[in-house]
Amino acid sequence: MAENLKQTRIEAIDFLRGVAVLGILAINVTGFWGPSLATFSPAIPRMEPGGAVWFGFAFVVFEGKMRALFSMLFGASMVLFARAAQRRGLDPGKAQVRRLVWLAIFGYAHYALLWWGDILFPYALCGLCALLLMRLSPAGLVAVALPIYLLSHGIDALLALPGMATEQAVLSGIAAPADVAEQAGMMARIAASISSDLAVLDAGFVDAVRLRLANGAAEPLRVTLATFTETLPLMLIGMALLRSGFFTTWPKRSLGWIAAIGILGGAAASVAALSWLAAHGWPPRAMFGAIESGMASPHLAMAIGYAAGLLLLFPHLRGRAVGRALVAAGRCAFSNYIGTTVLMGAILSGWGLGLGPELPRAWLPALVLLGWFAMLAWPRWWLARFGQGPLEALWRKLALPAHA
């Protein structure tokens, strides 16, 4: 019975991870397609027919929620890895450090060679910090995580409000000349960022690597610092959820309430914010403020709601083809994450087909569906023959010595 429970728990987490890695592509596809700032607004680099519809759907359903879910699952996986290392007679802390150092190396290579939007390097550094708190009780982990997450994002959101108000005054034509000049300066910086990103996107492979390193060799570290108060707390919450039995023993009734309140409440806040942003013409400062900090609480609520809802759904899908495919995709999430970068780069980048932003933004859902098909198509076949995804096997081999 205990073995069955353990297997179910692991499969449930893999199922959630499979959904999360598919959902992350729905946001990342915009960053593969165009400049990095395009992920913040349908008006960047330009407004297109149908582009705002896809952006709005992704904003409500995926933006921030899937990243939060994936980060929590990474925290849960750290606990599972520590237990696996201990069963092999290894020091869990040392094994974790090796694992995360190698992840940082993979992440920096992912950034330098393939794409600006890597999350593996920040995960590695935040994971090293999470190790220091891993022994706290579930309640202690949450007591550390929630204040960091809510206060940091809340303060950032409050600090963004004066700039948003000034932006509205500029757009309404009633701002002071200094404010108009400052807004123009921001728009010039946006234009420069777009130009720089498009140069990398249009370049051949070697030139793209050279440009990324010349213009931003320390970019992964900057991203880590910028996202630290989001990623670390989410990892700690994931550790707490695993150790509290959230993935195994929480009653269905509790999961149902969490799913309903988290998803409906977070979605209502997301729709309200989207409606205001759309009605005001997607103002840049407001878009940045909403996505970077203002929507943090709805993101967390919906991520936990999604997790609870998916746990309720999993027993009904476990024996079906879609459930098995998602579990396999989750077991190969590392390979799928890097694989989708290669696939989208081959379609959109200058070293591939070079479609890039010339492709209408309204076509991005088709690329998402293609990526989902690719992520679901191969893992079951591969796992049946090799037991682990290719990058997962390499990572584990590097982190856990063969003699242990």
Short description:
Helix content is 79%, strand content 0%. By secondary structure, it is mostly helical.
How does the SSE layout of this entry go?
Elements: H1 2-33, H2 51-61, H3 65-87, H4 92-113, H5 120-131, H6 138-172, H7 177-202, H8 205-216, H9 219-243, H10 252-279, H11 284-294, H12 296-317, H13 321-331, H14 333-348, H15 364-377, H16 379-386, H17 390-399
Explain the overall architecture.
The chain has helices at 2-33, 51-61, 65-87, 92-113, 120-131, 138-172, 177-202, 205-216, 219-243, 252-279, 284-294, 296-317, 321-331, 333-348, 364-377, 379-386, 390-399. The chain contains 17 helices and no strands. α4 runs antiparallel to α5 (120-131) and α6 (138-172) crosses α9 (219-243). The chain is mostly helical and 404 residues long. The two termini are 28 Å apart.
Jot down its keywords.
single chain; 404 residues; mainly alpha; 17 helices; 79% helix; disordered N terminus
Topology as a string of helices (H) and strands (E): HHHHHHHHHHHHHHHHH
Q: How many helical elements?
A: 17
Overall 3D shape: globular
End-to-end span in angstroms? 28 Å
Which blocks of ≥5 consecutive residues have pLDDT under 50?
Answer: 1-9
Our estimate of the beta-strand percent is under 5%
Number of strands: 0
Over the alpha carbons, how many angstroms does the gyration radius reach?
21 Å
- Please estimate the helix content: over 70%
Main β-sheet: number of strands, strand sense, barrel status? none
Class from secondary-structure proportions = mainly alpha
Summed over residues and divided by their number, the pLDDT gives a mean of 94
